[in-house]
Amino acid sequence: MQTVRSFCRVCTSVCGILVDVEGDEVVRVRGDQEHPFSRGYTCAKGRALPLVHHHPDRLEHPQMRIDGRLQNAPWDACLDDLGTRLRDIIDRHGPESVAFYFSTMESAGFRMAEALHAAIGTPAKFSPLTIDGTAKPLISDLVGGFMGLSGRTDFDNVDFLMLVGVNPVVSHGHAISMPNPTGTVRDIANRGQVWVIDPRRTETVRLATGHLAPRPSTDHAVMAYLVREILRDGRKFDVPVQGVDELAAAVEPFTLEHTASIADVAESDLTRLCAAVRTAKCVAVETGTGVTMTAERANVTQWLAWVLMILTGAMNRPGGTWFHPGFAYQLETFGDLLPITPVEGSFGPGPRSRPEAQAFINEWPCAVLPDEVEAGHIRALINVGGSLVTSFPETGKLIPALQNLEVFATTEIIDNETTQLATHVLPTKDPLERPDITIHDILSARVSVQYTPAVVAPVGERRSMWWVFAELGRRLGYDLGSLGDPDTSSDDDVLAVLLAGARSHYDEVAATGWADAGRELPAPWVDAHIERMGGWRLAPPLLVDQLAALEPPPPLVMVPRRQRKKLNAQLDFLGEPALILIHPDDGGAAGVVDGGPVVVRSTNGELTGVAKIDDSIRRGAVSVPHGHHAANVNRLTSKDDIDVITGMVRYSGIAVTLHPA
Question: Which terminus of the chain is less hemmed in, N or C, by CB atoms within 10 Å?
Fold first, then answer.
């Protein structure tokens, strides 16, 4: 038995793991007690990596669709056919007829796919950003003048943490990257306060010092009330700001009585929360998909969360929120190069079929893909590791659109509903078969990088993802060799290129397994950036207008939920059921019984799951977990119900009705 030190790539927490291997068999995954960040912690998802590697439906050979059926094919034949067909589409319809969807944690493959996308020169770029997360970079853009730096909580020193619509004990947080979330939340609660704002008594609530359960889709009202009260206290800003009067006017309607009515909470609960905020040294706020999936409501909630942090002195200060550009950048040069984004936002031209939808941070809304295909504008799609059927909105329109593409190529490791629709299936190495470095450290609570060697040899004919895209680029006539030569470069050679300008050399990281650049807090470059901008923008007009236009949410709505043994469409084999959480009053009114099948229906579609009548969730909320094929939440969504500012689809707060199946 051999034990290999590695790190988990199921989510962005990238916990340290030890992998026990016997021959070609991955026997066990356990936590690495010597890991500097996770310190031995693992979750059920990470411990399931052996089952992922040995999955009975794992893909081992390239496949091409021939006579309507996917068939195994040699790599050269598959890539030759794919390259020929893509070149023909580009020549006939232009580069914009080829779209990319980016969703992978494989660092080298991700960067090579980005290089291919840039070489083709297509504006059609999609990612999970417009499925679960546009609010965070939007507020960074509008309020902070940063492009894509959303900020992270200083978990080591925070003593007042507010978690809004996020359950990190199960999910590890939405872009929080919290290894050992139970221990982290418990430690903060022991030395200070942790408040959870969520319509359900979640696993995180059990560790918290306070809980508020507002009506779903009214988090913005709670934030506006808190901001209004702190402003009325005469709190002085310790950083430069602009737009104070406009902000005060925007939140003035959110009195105690008005907010209690909107959020359907007791006035005494609101005043207790407000009293806690008033006494805090500073308030750190983290939001999750319960917020970010609510389309335009997400924007105003995230905005007011930032304003609350600015008001309480949390921005760029110990115990609050800090900013970093990532391990791959040298900090001493980054601050000088950071441009100030316009108060109007970093938007650009969107797709021709949906003129109301614009590009945000150079990405198109995922919701427009079916319309672009139907209009004939997109004729080929290259899917970089995403499960489109369980992640894109309006499944009933998405599947026919994918079937109508001339080319739909996808990289994947396990056969699924998305691969079954492809014209070309490109099997790539799974997380245990490749050396790798952490790529999403900008989402992490630390400026760090980790390295892992390959744990086992790749099965079948699986190849490195970077190699696949380099070979495809070669067939299309593009030289992507600056990242890696498919004839001569190894995986480690490509990783070395990715760290060429980083804060530590690749050889050092590979030798030790990790490197930590520390935490600069406060960071002078952040203060200098805000000074150059004229102060934090407290009242961007786009957000002030959206707040004023919000109407009360429907009486019964669907809200999303993560599960312990499932992550999006992954890990079906762990057997986590699609339990629909329903308050006893809502279940009784609909005639739904505990343990029975229940149909959740929206104006756009329906799904069937198993009802769990549970008073841990408040009235008016129906909690549906992500990523199930049978109970696919995307069947309730609409590709036309989006926030037109960012293109974010409404995945939470959708009006629904309940029916016994």
Answer: N
